[in-house]
Amino acid sequence: MTVFHSLNDDIYCVDAAHMRDELVSIYILRQGDEVAIVDTGTQYSLDNVLTTLTELDIHRSQVKYVIPTHIHLDHAGGAGVMMEEFDQAQLIVHPRGARHMIDPTKLIEGSIGVYGEALFRKLYGDIRPIDEARIEIAADLDRYTLDKRELLFIDTPGHARHHFCIYDDQSRGFFTGDSFGLCYAPLKHHAWGLIPTSSPVQFDPQALTNTINRLLSYHPEQMFLTHFGAIDHPVQRSSGLKHWIDDYVALCEAVNPVDADSEQQLLEKMRNMIFDRLADAGLSEDKLRYILEMDIKLNAQGLAIWWRSIQQ
After folding, report:
1. Which residues contact 264 (CB under 8 A, 6 or more apart)?
2. β-pairing, 34-38 with 63-67?
3. At what angle do helices 117-124 and 105-115 cross, to 10 degrees?
4. pLDDT over 90 percentage in the chain
5. Which of 4, 72, 136, 196 has the fewest C-beta atoms under 10 angstroms from its C-beta?
6. 146 — phi, psi (to 5°)?
7. For residues 131-160, b (16+ Cβ closer than 10 Å) or e, as one string?
8. Spatial contact of 202 and 159, defined as CB atoms under 8 Å apart
9. What is the pLDDT of residues 164-176, one digit of tens each?
10. Closest residue by Cα to residue 142 from 180, 97, 202, 95
11. What is the arithmetic mean of pLDDT over 199-228?
12. CA nearest to 41, candidates 14, 17, 75
């Protein structure tokens, strides 16, 4: 496994070593003697981050910010161990996420309820609390500097209400977390390869579409996805992304996933729709399942939760 890839403008994409290769990105930005880390993976991602810093001749004391785009554990689960490792850094977090970084008890309990104790520990390890004094809350349009480089924080609901994206003026790119979909390497250049993520529990299709439009209003030249790596031509790619969101809603309208049986039907119809559109990607169905099955299951669950919430 390649631990990291060098991108443009002193940006480095680190493989978070979560579940499989090239599933979760962590980004390291370097400007002068200052460094920011965007998204953290899990406790088990720290080794790859430290390896990357060593290879880039970056000292741990240079890490100024640790920035989870939102508090889902594949993005923020490693924040506590990183803040211990980089003891001079500040954590920048969305206003809705700060309390869960200070006291992650509910995050842990909720995840154990889904995965069970043993699998949770295998996937995420130890989720450690962070001293409130080391946390900075970034409101919409707040700006932080990395040496002379400006990072602009944009509130981006739709995937989750505790989500922000970060615009980097130097690369003219956004660090998008889950707000601009997911796109894995074998599907990078396919017209339908950029797929929205509607994973539980706060998906809101209209808010997500609004977020995508807002991000595009900055005329970005690239998007740095957490799942996985950078994509260019974001305006062109957004057409398919927004079409997927509309199709997700249409599936819910057709299936009405209000119980376990109909949710299973939604899952099957979503899988069929995605696989049909990617049939010419040059991948076997087994390979598509390997790449996308987990996301499809999470997306169906998130859609069903959203659908039931608007029926009340």
Report:
1. none
2. parallel
3. 120
4. 91
5. 136
6. -120, 100
7. eeeebeebeeeeebebeebebbbbbbbbbb
8. yes
9. 999 999 999 999 9
10. 95
11. 96
12. 75
Q: What is the pTM of this model?
A: 0.95
Classify residue 294 by burial, with Cβ atoms within 10 Å: 0-12, 13-18, 19+. Answer: middle
Grade residue 110 by pLDDT with cuts at 50, 70 and 90.
Answer: confident
| Number of other residues whose CB lies within 10 A of the CB of residue 5 | 15
Long-range contacts of 109-118 (CB under 8 A, 24+ apart): 111/73
Under DSSP, is residue 250 helix (H, G, I), strand (E, B) or coil?
A: helix
Cis bond before residue 201 (omega within 30° of 0)? yes
Q: Going by C-beta distance under 8 Å and a sequence separation of 6 or more, which residues neighbour residue 150?
A: 143, 144, 168, 169
How is the chain split into domains, by residue range? 4-235, 239-310
In the sheet that holds 90-93, the strands lie side by side as 4-6, 11-15, 25-31, 34-38, 63-67, 90-93, 135-137
Structure tokens at 274: 């995605």
Alpha-carbon span 247 to 245, nearest angstrom: 5
Domain boundaries 4-235, corresponding CATH code: 3.60.15.10
Kind of pairing, strands 90-93 and 63-67?
parallel
Cα–Cα distance, 294 to 271 (Å, whole number): 11
How many alpha carbons lie under 13 Å from residue 146 in its C-beta half-sphere? 32
Residues across the chain: 312
Question: 246-285: per-residue pLDDT in tens?
Answer: 999 999 999 999 999 999 999 999 999 999 999 999 999 9
The span from the CA of 165 to the CA of 218, in Å, is 12
Tokens encoding 281: 């990607």
Strand pairing report for 25-31 and 34-38: antiparallel
pLDDT bucket at 1, cuts 50 / 70 / 90: low
- The four Cα atoms 208, 213, 219, 220 give a dihedral, to 10 degrees, of 10
